[in-house]
Each structure stands twice: as structure tokens, then as C-alpha cells.
């Protein structure tokens, strides 16, 4: 019975796993290499290949040496990857800005609501003032007529 290279427990029906097709040829539990059950299911199909994290050829896009100035020694693919990562970062920054802008717009529209309210109150006040001045006019006329 094979045992998991990560945790040394046996790989069996109860704790399913798979064998690395890379140079180590070791067995690993699905859970020890962060594979879900459905991942494991499709990797166990005939013709599927799986390599453990140690054997997998890794191009780590976040590794710091992408921007270390050794661009000349890199392939176009690496440069493209770096460019894509840069664009992705800028898009993420834009998305963050967009959220900020949206919040600001939401705030402003709340303020517009308040403005509408103030305007409505203003119109009421104007009407009241006009009404009052009419009354004062008629009062004045009344007194003028009496004198
Ligand atoms: Zn394990
Ligand atoms: Zn391996």
C-alpha cells in the first residue's frame, strides 16, 4: 500500500490520493496537495497526468525576480506574463478606484435628495411669504382707506 509523501500515512480508499507523474513518482493524498474530490476524480481518469508541487515546472508570476532588471535573459513569454500581471494590477487598482467613485456618487445623490428637500421647503416658504405680503398689502389698504 503506497504511503503519502507529505504526511507518510497510507493512501487508500478512505484517504484517496494519486501518484506523481514527475520525477519523484511519489504518492500524495489529495488533501495533502490541496486537491478537491472533483479534482482528484478528473486526475484519476485514464490519460490524465498530475505532478506534485515539487516536480511541477513552476513559473511563479509573483516571484520578485521578474522585475530584477534581467529582462534580456527572459523569453517573450515571461515578458508577456509580466506585462499581463502589471495590467492586472492596474485593473485591480482601477476597480478599487471605481468602488470609491461609486461610493462618492452614492453620497452625492444622497446630498441631491437633501437639496430637493431644501428646494421644496424653499418653495413653500416663498409661497408663504407671498401670501403674507398680500395680507400686509390688504391690511395697508384697509388702514389707508380708513384714514
Ligand atoms: Zn498525506
Ligand atoms: Zn513529484
* Biggest sheet features: 2 strands, antiparallel
Instruction: Give the spatial strand order of the biggest sheet.
Output: 1-2
Mean residue pLDDT: 84
Distance N terminus to C terminus?
A: 122 Å
Bound molecules: zinc ion
Q: In terms of per-residue confidence, which ranges show pLDDT below 50 for 5 or more consecutive residues? A: none
Total of helices: 2
Number-wise, the strands total: 2
Shape: rod-shaped
Q: What Rg, in angstroms, do the CA atoms define?
A: 37 Å
Helix content: 40-55%
Q: Structural class given helices, strands, pairing?
A: mainly alpha
Reading the helices and strands in chain order gives EEHH
* Proportion in β-strands: under 5%
Describe the structure.
The chain has helices at residues 37-43, 76-146, and strands at 17-19, 27-29. The protein is mainly alpha-helical and 147 residues long. It is built from 2 helices and 2 strands; from the N terminus they run ββαα. Bound molecules: zinc ion (2 copies). One zinc ion binds at residues 4, 6-7, 9, 29, 32.
Amino acid at each position: 500500500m503506497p504511503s503519502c509523501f507529505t504526511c507518510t500515512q497510507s493512501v487508500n480508499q478512505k484517504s484517496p490520493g494519486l501518484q506523481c507523474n514527475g520525477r519523484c513518482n511519489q504518492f500524495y493524498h489529495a488533501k495533502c496537495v490541496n486537491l478537491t474530490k472533483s479534482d482528484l476524480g478528473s486526475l484519476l481518469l485514464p490519460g490524465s497526468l498530475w505532478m506534485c508541487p515539487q516536480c511541477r515546472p513552476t513559473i511563479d508570476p509573483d516571484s520578485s525576480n521578474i522585475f530584477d532588471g534581467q529582462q534580456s535573459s527572459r523569453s517573450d513569454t515571461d515578458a508577456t506574463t509580466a506585462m499581463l500581471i502589471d495590467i492586472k494590477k492596474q485593473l485591480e487598482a482601477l476597480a478599487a478606484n471605481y468602488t470609491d467613485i461609486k461610493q462618492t456618487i452614492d453620497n452625492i445623490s444622497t446630498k441631491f435628495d437633501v437639496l430637493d428637500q431644501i428646494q421644496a421647503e424653499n418653495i413653500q416658504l416663498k409661497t408663504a411669504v407671498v401670501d403674507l405680503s398680500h395680507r400686509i398689502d390688504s391690511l395697508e389698504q384697509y388702514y389707508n382707506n380708513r384714514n
